[in-house]
Amino acid sequence: QMKTPPDRSGITFEVGAQLEARDRHKSWYAATIEKIDYDKERVLVHYRQWSRRHDEWFHWTSPYLRPLERVSLRRQCRNPSPSQTVLPLSSSVSAVPPLLMSTPLSSGVLPSCPRRLFQA
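Structure for PHD finger protein 20, b, as requested:
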């Protein structure tokens, strides 16, 4: 008899389904289910925008898997709108480079969001 994945709100256990997974460094990333191992009750997760060598197996009840819905807020941080960009206040500080909240994705580190984006 084939085992069935648990009913977890916001997570669909099927190949190609999207979710968020927490890596070994305790960071959450958008991910896709690549394989499902019904015997061992686990899923192979691929972190989007990362090499496949980082793919990881998670037990399907793992607390390190969660729905993807939280990512839409974070996307705003990667491409900040002008209102999220901090610029010098006057020309007297023009020698100071403007502070941007985004960091290049090529650095391999996803930028963190300012807390105010998460407050209602």
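Confidence is low (pLDDT under 50) at residues 80-88, 90-120.
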